[in-house]
Automatic annotation (TrEMBL):
UniProt organism field: Inconstantimicrobium porci
UniProt function note: Catalyzes the dehydration of the S-form of NAD(P)HX at the expense of ADP, which is converted to AMP. Together with NAD(P)HX epimerase, which catalyzes the epimerization of the S- and R-forms, the enzyme allows the repair of both epimers of NAD(P)HX, a damaged form of NAD(P)H that is a result of enzymatic or heat-dependent hydration. Bifunctional enzyme that catalyzes the epimerization of the S- and R-forms of NAD(P)HX and the dehydration of the S-form of NAD(P)HX at the expense of ADP, which is converted to AMP. This allows the repair of both epimers of NAD(P)HX, a damaged form of NAD(P)H that is a result of enzymatic or heat-dependent hydration.
PROSITE patterns per record: YJEF_C_3, YJEF_N
Keywords from the UniProt entry: ATP-binding, Isomerase, Lyase, Metal-binding, Multifunctional enzyme, NAD, NADP, Nucleotide-binding, Potassium
Protein name in the entry: Bifunctional NAD(P)H-hydrate repair enzyme
Listed cofactors: K(+); Mg(2+)
Pfam family, one: YjeF_N
Binding site for (6S)-NADPHX: G130, T131, G132, L133, S134, R135, Q136, Y141, D159, A260, G320, H372, D438
UniProt-recorded Gene Ontology molecular function terms: ADP-dependent NAD(P)H-hydrate dehydratase activity; ATP binding; metal ion binding; NAD(P)HX epimerase activity
Domain YjeF N-terminal: 9-216
Gene: nnrD
Quaternary structure (record): Homotetramer.
Amino acid sequence: MKIVTPDAMRKIEDEYINGYGMDSFALMETAVISIMKHVNIKDRNIVVVCGFGNNAGDALGVARHLIVLHKIVKIFICSNGRELSRDCIKNMNILYKMNASIEFIRKTEDLNSLNKSISESDVVIDGLFGTGLSRQLDTYYTDIIKSINTYSKYVLSIDIPSGMNGENGYIMGECVKANKTVALQFYKKCFFCDKAKNYTGDVVVESLGIPKEISEKYDEKVYTSDEITDKILPKRNKYSHKGTFGRTTIAAGSEKYTGAAYIAAQAAVKTGAGLVTLATSKEQVPIMQSKLAEAMICDYEDKYFVEIIKKSNVVACGPGLDSNDSSLKIVEEVITNSECPIVFDADAINVLSAHKELLFGRKEKNIVLTPHPGEMARFCGCSIEDVNNKRIEIAKNTAIETNCIIVLKGYNTVITDGEKIFINTTGSSAMASGGMGDCLTGIVTGLISQGLDPFKASVLGVYIHGFIGDSLSKQMYSVTATDIINKISLYLKEFES
Ligand SMILES: NC(=O)C1=CN([C@@H]2O[C@H](COP(=O)(O)OP(=O)(O)OC[C@H]3O[C@@H](n4cnc5c(N)ncnc54)[C@H](O)[C@@H]3O)[C@@H](O)[C@H]2O)[C@@H](O)CC1
Ligand SMILES: [K+]
């Protein structure tokens, strides 16, 4: 599913109306009908809070339909003296003809009536601002939003919770806390910013029937992962053998950390990598030999390590490494001895943040970096807060700067090659446990091993990882990396072409 900025949405709408000749009020009515699907038919008392633009126009259209359905509807127009948009006026005039209850909020005392109506209502329809919100709100609007948040039982926001900047998710003073947001035609970019989930509630996207030719013209190449994850895993040919599914090397683990190496290697095995070799620290070799039945084991000092890197179809490096000089040596060895795709995770990324030059000069864009926000911040030399505030931009800029694929982990993981951006929608806090990142590295590596290009493998790997977690969390309070590993091959069947 496409994700758009308010600017792109405006251009798309403009072209449909002014270029293709679509009637703007008909388009608004399409929005109204689709929003109506999300109003609980059992609710009787409904308050509709409007601003003065087309978001308000949508809300007034919804009010009209609710009155026709014999609901008790109280409409509040919060324009603060501004002129209403043309289609907003059209809906308001129809409502006046229907003798609807319409009040204008002009001064602070008018808020008493709003507060009382909201507290007596079952649901509030929020049509204050949508994609048009562009500046900080004054106290007139922040007070209204506070009223909604204080007195409402349930809020349905139209397009965007009012108060959230549609482009960057910034809260422009105050923001409606919706239970559900009905986004029109596309996801808005703000939904995937750090704090958006605290305000949007459940997000549903409703089509306005805008033709693809128009939306493709203003494609900003930002999508949710489900755009490409369906059926992209190649079917396994019955005559294939282990060589068909690739040779994978996992360089992971140190004297200090053992679990990570095991999880990453086992995840790659279970994802279907043909031949997996785990290179690890000398001390770990005997332990891993007893734990990993299906993988070969060597140590970093072994001359076989470089040989196997050279022969590999993919190398993963980083889980359970330490951020010391011996890790730098391992990272260098991996980069200088391979032309195949590499997935760098954890301390390998920390090492690389001080040696970015190692990433430059590759023929193909086939290095994947999978930082969590802390690693991303270190890599970019900024704060974690900066990363969280600008996840998409920071991931994209780093991908461009390093010529790598960036998988910025966290809620709504961002995957980008610097041009296209995919935002993952699977996964939840039930998966917040140690080893999950190592498991993801193993899955992405296992997919690349089987021939998927590194970018698609990253998008699909992140999606599957979260998808399994989501499925398991329906029956489990918390989900561990081992739980995921045990189910990978079962769930992968669903993604086969
Ligand atoms: N894009 C589309 O195809 C469609 C959009 N529709 C609706 O139209 C909405 C956008 O409507 P508008 O562009 O009229 O904008 P809004 O209704 O979101 O906002 C109204 C106006 O508020 C002003 N404004 C911005 N920041 C402000 C602030 N801090 N304080 C006071 N005023 C401020 C802006 O000038 C803006 O035009 C969408 O979110 C959606 O709900 C629908 O009617 C159907 C079609
Ligand atoms: K809204």
